[in-house]
Amino acid sequence: MSLTVAKFGGTSVADYQAMVRCANIIKQDENCRTAVVSASAGVTNYLVRLSQAEVPAAEQASIITSISEIQHNITAQLAAEHDLNREIALLLNELTELAKQQSNHYSLQNADAILSYGEQMSSLIFAEVLRSIGLPGIQFDVRQVMKTNSAYGQANVDIEQLKQASQAVLQPLLQEHIVVTQGFIGQDSLGYTTTLGRGGSDYSAALLAEALDATKLAIWTDVEGIFTTDPRITDQARSIPEISFGEAAEMATFGAKILHPATLIPAMRQNIPVFVGSSKEPEKGGTRIQQEVASKPTYRSIALRRQQSLVTVKSPEMLHASGFLAKVFAILAKHELSVDLITTSEISVALTFDNPTASSQHLITQAVVEELEQLCEVTVEHGLSLVAVIGNGLNAAKGLGRDIFQKINDFNIRLICHGASSNNLCFLVPEENANTIVEQLHDRLFTQ
Ligand code: ASP
Ligand code: MG
Q1: Which atom from ligand 1 is nearest to the alpha carbon of 204?
Q2: Which residues have any ligand 1 atom within 6 Å of their CB?
Q3: pLDDT value of position 253
Q4: Sign of CA dihedral 115, 46, 91, 27
Q5: pLDDT tier for residue 319 given thresholds of 50, 70 and 90
């Protein structure tokens, strides 16, 4: 049986008009019987603040008012009779209590409970919006099936349990209903609410699509698909009609912000085609991501990831020695650092690390450096950006000099990684040149 799982992001459920547009998208696809929603735009950011320690009482109150306004602006426009205001008031009361507790006794567990209210409210309201246009919408609490470990803030889902529970309790509901459920949240074995990490709703939707044996996963967002590069860098960027899983996964890992990087993993496991489109302008189409694609161009897109650190370790003892790399990696593993790119020469190795964009702290701490220094000389550089050219057969392509390197001839290229993957060629450049480089490369690869 055909089944579409649709996911609507924060801007797609930001206000009443946006929700009605999404409801109509569901109406157009008779196979669409599961909708996964994010919190209405802005709500999770407010909740993040509420989930912190020692938030002044006045600020707590004003945040709750702002959240309440976002939600009530939607419910006020629903013409039909509904009971939403009472239900939202109950949720906001719970939230107020949790926020108070949190500012006195901070706990990670409580933080996740607080963060879950955005999705709880948006799913409640969206189910009503579906009913208001005549669709059989019901809200379903995803915590019944999305069982996770207790790593609050970044919980891991038990995929087997999700599959069994979804088949047992969710699947039967799809016979007669369109189920509206929450992205981003889950529940641990102790019964506490957990979250899967910021932007995790895409991943929730993909996991549910896998668990329900869906035939399509549709991610509705505020851009019309995946672009050849970030449209904020060049207005020449355009939507890609079709792209393979492999290429799209590379894009997500290398900085294209459009999908949560883990989203494609369940879809690839189960070979479920993914569509990404704009709920604002669904008629404009979007991007289809699937296993097999008709065209496999050498150059598909350019991704840019900022805030990279480059660590170079150098040891004359490495000459003809063995085991040096193993020692370096043991230290990195101990500090749970994940390496992105690597290049090596006879006596030195250069490694890149991604720094979380939201934080000003570098992942490479003094402690890491000191430990590495017991083995070798260490230099750390910051302020770099990683440019990834993504496409097909890149490791065997001819003309890279003409197509890529000629364009970046005037810039300092700090490191190049090529050959390991047929889907990407990456290099590291100074942060201040990154936009110009991407713009010029895009011009060369996609507009000539
Ligand atoms: N509402 C959550 C966030 O803003 C999850 C999501 O939207 O994907 O991060
Ligand atoms: Mg998102």
Answers
A1: 8
A2: 9-10, 38-39, 44, 118, 183-184, 198-201
A3: 78
A4: negative
A5: low
